[in-house]
Amino acid sequence: MKRAAVFAHYDIDNIIDDYVIYYLKELKEIADELVFVSCNELSENEKSKLDGIADFVIAEKHDEYDFGSYKRGFVYLTSRLNDFDELIFANDSCYGPLYSLRQIFEEMEKDSRCDFWGITKNRFGAIKNKNSKYVSAIRPHIQSYFLLTGINNGSGIHQAIIILLQHLQDLLHTGILHVNVYFTFFILSVKRQTQTQDKKT
After folding, report:
1. 128-152 residue pLDDT tens
2. What are the Cα distances from residue 163, in Å, to 37, 156, 159, 186, 192?
3. How many Cβ atoms from other residues are within 10 Å of residue 128's Cβ?
4. Distance (Å, rounded) from C-alpha 196 to C-alpha 183?
5. Dist CA 169 CA 68 (whole Å)
6. Among the residues of the chain, which ranges form H helices?
7. Which of 14, 59, 60, 168 is most buried, most CB within 10 Å of its CB?
8. What are the tens digits of pLDDT across the range 53-83?
9. What pairs with residue 89 in β-bridges?
10. What is the DSSP letter of 120?
11. Distance of alpha carbon 159 from alpha carbon 124, whole angstroms
C-alpha cells in the first residue's frame, strides 16, 4: 500500500512541540508522503524542525479548524492522488502513538473490505431538536484526529472528499462536532452508493 498523510497542526504559541515531532516521525514510518499543514504562521526556525520528516509544509492562518488544514493538504495532493492507495488525515490533538502504528495497519490490512476507518469511534454527535438547537444524540462517527480512507479503488471517495471540503465553511457554521459526524456519514453514503452500482453492473 502506498499512503499519503495530511497532518493538521495548531499551537497557541506558534511552535511545534516535541510530542508533535515524535508523532510525525512515527507517522512517516507508514506514510510515503507527509504533508504538514499548520494554521499558524510559523517562523523559519520552527519549520526547520520538520526537515527530513515532512515532504511539504503549509503554514498559514485560517479559522477552519483541523478540517481546514485537511482541506489545504488535500488540495496540494489532488493532482497526484492516483499515485496513492490510501489517504490519512491526522492532527495533533492527542499524544502518541504509544506503540507502533505499523502494527495497527498490518491488522487492518487483513480485511481487504475495510477502506475507511479510524482509531476511535464516538457514539454521540450533534442533531437539531424541534427548536432548531443542536443537542447530543446517538450518532456514531469516526473521530477526525486520525482517520484513513482508500482513494484509488474506484469508489469515488476522493471526489466525495472534494465536494465535502468545498462546503466546509457552511458546515463549520453548524459547529465542529457536526463536521465530524457529517464526514463519516457522507463517506459511508458514497461507499454504499458505489456498492449498489457495482451490484447492478
Report:
1. 667 767 676 666 777 889 988 887 6
2. 20, 11, 6, 10, 17
3. 12
4. 20
5. 9
6. 18-28, 44-47, 65-77, 101-108, 157-166, 168-172, 176-200
7. 59
8. 999 999 999 988 888 899 899 889 988 888 9
9. 6, 147
10. -
11. 27
